[in-house]
Write a structure and sequence with these properties.
The protein is α+β, with helices and mostly antiparallel strands. It has seven helices and seven strands.
Length: about 180
């Protein structure tokens, strides 16, 4: 359900309500665009689907593409990557009229909706909870590594609703270490 994700839900609702949707491309700064969403209506009804994906920075072209450049005053000039907008052929996912979100590419979903920032924000209080038990050596390093790595941040953020498990684990950490050392 789209309601599961606060940030994507907010942004999709802004698209549905035409709040700050782009209608004029003349003031668009291409190098600031990281993702896009496109809303389609179909069957001449109110049914809709919203596709989203990331914007690729085309700093180099694939082999076999040929030659491309700007012609200004009868001269071929280099193209500035800031002046290019490339749409990703890989779909990140879509939202249907039932408010269901289908994520086809996790990394694109995370980029399009800046979910890595959300993971870090949710992980911070969980890390403080873990810190309060004073059971992890070099906790500062563990915390820095977790916040620097989006996969770790996401995993720690998922513990937000499982603090009882975390507490049991940390209160029985010596038994966990014992269990890890037993081969069978």
């Amino acid at each position: 359900s789209l309601d599961t994700f606060e940030r994507p839900n907010t942004l999709i609702n802004r698209i549905r309500n035409n709040i700050e949707c782009l209608t004029d491309l003349s003031n668009l700064q291409l190098d600031t665009v990281k993702a896009y969403a496109v809303r389609f209506h179909y069957d001449q009804t109110s049914r809709e689907v919203i596709y989203f994906s990331s914007i690729q920075g085309y700093k180099k072209f694939k082999k076999g593409f040929g030659f491309i450049g700007n012609i200004t005053n009868n001269k071929v000039e280099k193209i500035n990557p800031k002046d290019l907008l490339g749409f990703n052929p890989v779909l990140g996912g879509y939202v249907n009229e039932h408010n269901e979100i289908v994520i086809t590419t996790k990394s694109i979903f995370e980029n399009a909706f800046k979910m890595r920032e959300v993971y870090k924000a949710v992980a911070r209080p969980v890390l403080e909870f873990v810190r309060s038990f004073n059971k992890i050596e070099n906790f500062e390093n563990f915390e820095q590594d977790t916040l620097a790595n989006s996969n770790l941040s996401r995993r720690v953020a998922m513990l937000e609703n499982k603090k009882i498990r975390v507490e049991k684990l940390l209160n029985n950490i010596s038994k966990v270490q014992e269990a890890l050392n037993v081969e069978e």
